[in-house]
Design brief:
Helix content: 40-55%
Strand content: 15-25%
Radius of gyration: 28 Å
Number of helices: 35
Structural class: alpha+beta
Number of strands: 28
């Protein structure tokens, strides 16, 4: 590893500081590029998943979304790489482990990651050329495509707005949570940049001009306003030389001021706003009430970490005292809190959902009186200790799901660096946690409540009401603007609009020149490992009469113990109750603990106990079409496994499921949360419903997470007063049948010493042993209902597909290459670029599932037609060796993503249950590597066969669905 010295200059970069961050086992170097003024942070360690990013401070002056549109647009061609979509070409043919860009409220980030050294260098080059030398100055069509434009294909047509960001934000603003956050910021920061929507308000996006767009780039995308970040096992001197010689050496420092002023205290403000619901939807109990506080500044690490812990302590479980008070009050059906520190002045929001505007004063008073009582009487010591321990466990585990560690640290760095603080402030936590622990005895958290909440001089209350007319009013306003504008145009101006539309369509349809594509840096198949990565060692044994599988993984002294019960013993009509059971367990008192005591015990002794329902595909040996499981996961440090298993047994066998008051709270909360999911995840809801038509596994999933489950839990909430005792009895009966050693498999992920500790304590579970009787499996209905679900959304989610196994096709790794090509070539261009949707893709699984999907799509019938014509694209598919190689490499990159220790265990569990062998994975890889254009052409029959079955589901705008009613078997409201 390179050794840098403070004060020395390396290729124009002077090292101004070096420090070792023990928490992430990394040396961190802060540098400045003397000529251009660019800042650079290098986090040096042994991680081979290297991360690079360049970020800019981008404070918006309005809500036109200029920086969001720029984030999209600069990745649409550059000086060195003049193809239409370098970003997509990289997705097609890179071994990237992360490739994206983010627009925040005050910054824009362009991160990439890869484990392959050459690939990492390629990604850096393309991204740097994109941000500093984009083609936006040469091609206005980029702005029109990604931002907005007038769409008029014929002079007599209706004039419309179109654009990727425009439609993305129409979808985003259809969600009440987006509107709520937007209004909260307006209420707290009325004089600063945070009052604006950096993503763009659809009502304001069309006010942005091309000239303003270009000015924003030339002003803010300058090295003097940039923050470079490199992480991992990187040849730093090589990278510094490249950045300097290729880019930064061509710039001089710019003194343009982009600093972000603080909002002065405003006392208590109040803001009332509306969000859209359907005309047929009930408006009662649909109001959001939010009490919000500004908390110091983002550069204060201790204060930020303390408030993150305090938020969890007060609101993150049913035993949390403030949440408990809100739920028991009956003022709303659910409550949550959020703490946002990705802005110069962080905010804490306490939100009550499914309430009414008339409850505003009672809500505010209840929050204040509860906080006052907690501050005066003192927080429960065990509750405090549990919250602090849980946060420490989370920080030490450092499991960031699909994000590379280096990227998460990059985002943390910006929380202080962007505001001229020390960049390493948010990387450290050990000394801060120690300081917090030392102050606990002196009313530490109680004083925070008093100083920042009860005595706040900077807070707001936001009331977000449901409106049956606001969507129609906004649409009418937009149509009026467009009609007036069109009426004001002369014939030659109308013709100019038509020509402009045709010109944009022609550009979108035109293939990139071969010589331009060849300019993009690429890998060869020689750069790719032809063998699958070694599988996690898995050992199977019997302990206490229970099958236990051990995945041998280094887990930093954390054991992941997971119990899987086969839910085939549960009658089909009770399947939805399993979801409710997963919500109830751990949230009710037990024989030995009150709910408050249980929550504290879990937080003190474990990293969490979690219950969920999971679905696995067919196992070859059994012939079952799917394998449904109910799981209990315990995360625990070495030395505490026995205590954690004692707690788990307590929950499984002694939870007070007949506490009807608490059970009703949970049912109501679950119903409100499902309603929010329906409003926010239209693509997932549509896909779930569609799969229930033709897939047994899909039918099961629909009962646990789709429209069917929403209807189940909604009815349960509505009838609980009459049916509560029956619900409790059903849950108890399910527990009696389900928690049985005969249908149990236990998975342990960790080192051998952790496994031995588990084995020594497994008897503590004392799992009961009863006769198992398997019930008939839930099966698909077997016919296409082709339902349309009408929502208040301004966009559509269009899904079409089928099970290709039923058409006589067999899975091959070559299908994954087909998926990559269709998603990033045909569907990207037809659904996103031309259609204006935020996204379109093909989902294809080993079990036979094939789904075409669109996301935040302004179209409906046109998108279905795109799906139907996919086979024609495959029929005519041609690719030279370079293009085919890219498709293969891009496909393999999805299979070779690095996994955290817990994720390695989850994948090993899936392979175990589905009996996927290393030989099969290698066969899949070999098939991918051997794919040729003829293979893609031969899949034309597969695509045609799937779409000709004509199974589809759409979630979307009520007016749009009604105008295409003839397409559907039925139309109904998504939320009632």
């Amino acid at each position: 590893m390179s050794r840098l010295t403070t004060g020395n200059i390396y290729y124009g970069f002077q090292v101004v500081n070096e420090e070792f961050i023990r928490e992430i086992d990394s040396a961190v170097f802060t540098m400045e590029h003397l000529k251009s003024g660019a800042r650079l942070l290098f986090v040096q360690n042994q991680d081979d998943n290297k991360v690079f990013s360049v970020s800019f401070r981008t404070p918006p002056e309005d809500s036109t979304g200029v920086f969001h549109i720029l984030e999209h647009s600069v990745l649409c061609g550059s000086e060195k790489y003049p193809v239409k979509e370098p970003f997509v070409e990289l997705l097609k043919g890179s071994m990237q482990t992360f490739l994206n860009a983010f627009t925040f409220g005050d910054k824009t980030m362009y991160p990439v990651a890869s484990r392959n050294d050459q690939d990492f260098s390629n990604l850096m080059d393309v991204y740097l050329d994109s941000v500093f030398q984009p083609n936006i100055y040469k091609q206005q069509e980029i702005f029109e495509q990604e931002g907005w434009h007038y769409e008029l294909q014929r002079a007599e047509d209706e004039l419309t707005y179109k654009g990727v960001v425009y439609n993305e934000m129409k979808g985003s603003y259809s969600s009440p949570t987006t509107v709520l956050m937007d209004r909260i910021k307006k209420s707290l920061y009325p004089d600063t940049i945070y009052r604006h929507s950096s993503g763009g308000d659809p009502q304001e996006i069309p006010a942005l001009t091309y000239e303003q767009f270009l000015k924003a780039h030339s002003t803010y995308y300058h090295p003097s306003n940039s923050y470079f970040y490199l992480y991992g096992d990187v040849n730093i001197e090589e990278k510094l030389q490249f950045i300097d010689q290729e880019y930064l050496s061509h710039y001089e420092q710019n003194s343009f001021d982009t600093s972000i002023p603080l909002q002065q205290p405003i006392g208590m403000s109040e803001l009332v706003a509306d969000y859209p619901i359907l005309e047929a939807e009930a408006a009662t109990d649909k109001t959001y009430l939010s009490l919000n506080y500004v908390i110091g500044t983002s550069t204060d690490r201790e204060l930020n970490l303390a408030f993150d812990i305090l938020k969890s302590m007060l609101m993150d479980s049913n035993a949390a005292p403030l949440k408990q008070a809100l739920l028991e009050s009956g003022l709303g059906k659910d409550a949550f809190a959020f703490y946002s520190d990705s802005m110069v002045q962080p905010l804490l929001g306490i939100t009550l959902t499914h309430s009414n505007a008339s409850s505003k004063d009672a809500f505010v008073e209840l929050v204040k009186t509860t906080l006052k009582r907690l501050a005066q009487d003192g927080l429960d010591e065990k509750l405090v200790l549990a919250a602090v321990n849980s946060k420490e466990f989370e920080l030490r585990e450092a499991d960031f799901n699909q994000y590379p560690k280096g990227l998460t640290y990059n985002i943390e760095v910006m929380k202080s660096w962007l505001y001229d603080g020390q960049p390493t402030t948010h990387m450290r936590y050990e000394e801060v946690l120690t300081a917090i622990r030392e102050k606990l005895a002196d009313r530490y958290f109680e004083k925070l409540i008093e100083d920042y909440l009860l005595n706040s001089d900077h807070c707001s209350v936001v009331v977000l009401n449901p409106s049956k007319t606001i969507a129609a009013e906004k649409e009418a306003s937009t149509q009026h603007q467009l009609s007036e504008y069109k009426a004001s145009l002369q014939p030659d101006q109308l013709e100019q609009l038509v020509q402009s539309t045709q010109h944009l369509l022609a550009r979108q349809s035109r293939a990139d020149a071969a010589e331009d594509l060849q300019k993009l840096p690429s890998l060869s198949l020689q750069d790719i490992n032809r063998s699958v990565e070694p599988q996690v060692p898995t050992h199977e044994q019997i302990h206490e009469g229970i099958k236990v599988i051990h995945h041998e993984v280094a887990t930093h002294k954390i054991a992941y113990c997971k119990l899987y019960w086969d839910t085939g013993v549960i009658a089909p009509e009770r399947i939805p109750y399993l979801v409710l059971l997963a919500e109830v367990l751990g949230q009710m008192e037990t024989a030995s603990y009150s709910i408050e005591e249980l929550t504290s015990e879990i937080g003190i002794k474990t990293g969490g106990i979690y219950f969920r329902n999971e679905l696995y595909g067919a196992a070859k040996a059994t012939g079952a079409s799917y394998q449904p499981k109910f799981s209990a996961l315990v995360k625990v440090m070495a030395g505490h496994i026995g205590e954690s298993l004692d707690l788990l047994r307590e929950i499984l066998y002694t939870s007070a499921l007949d506490n009807l008051t608490k059970l009703q709270e949970i049912v109501r909360r679950e119903a409100s949360q499902m309603e929010s999911i329906l409003n926010q995840r239209g693509n997932e809801i549509a896909a779930s419903r569609l799969m229930s038509y033709f897939s047994d596994m899909g039918a099961y999933h629909e009962q646990q997470g789709g429209v069917a489950y929403y209807r189940f839990i909604r009815e349960l909430a509505q009838t609980f007063d009459q049916q509560g005792a029956e619900v409790a009895d059903t849950l108890k009966d399910i527990c009696r049948v389900l928690f049985n050693s005969k249908n149990l498999i236990i998975s342990v992920t960790g080192t051998p010493d952790l496994y031995e500790e588990f084995v020594a304590n497994v008897a503590k579970l004392d799992i009961q042993d009863r006769l198992v009787v398997n019930m008939p499996k839930l099966t698909a209905q077997g016919h296409a209902d082709n339902e349309g679900f009408m929502s208040s959304s301004q966009v559509q989610y269009v899904v079409k597909g089928y099970d290709f196994n039923k058409l006589g096709f067999t899975y091959s790794g070559k299908m994954q290459v087909l998926k990559k090509i269709l998603s990033l070539t045909y569907l990207w261009n037809a659904v996103r670029v031309k259609g204006g949707a935020y996204g379109g893709s093909l989902i294809l699984r080993r079990d036979g599932m094939m789904l075409f999907t669109s996301y935040r799509d302004p179209n409906l019938q046109e998108t279905l037609e795109v799906y139907d014509q996919a086979y024609r694209f495959a029929e005519g598919y041609e690719a030279d060796q370079g293009e085919m190689t890219k498709a293969i490499i891009g496909t393999l990159s999805m299979l070779d993503q690095p996994l955290s220790p817990s994720a390695q265990g989850r994948r090993a569990d899936r392979h175990y249950f589905e009996q996927v062998t290393g030989a099969e994975l290698q066969q899949e890889r070999d098939e991918i590597l051997s794919t040729i254009p003829e293979d893609i052409r031969q899949y034309a029959d597969l695509l045609k066969g799937v779409t000709e079955q004509n199974y589809f589901t759409v979630v979307g705008n009520a007016s749009k669905l009604k105008s295409t009613k003839a397409l559907f078997g039925s139309l109904e409201e998504l939320v009632k």
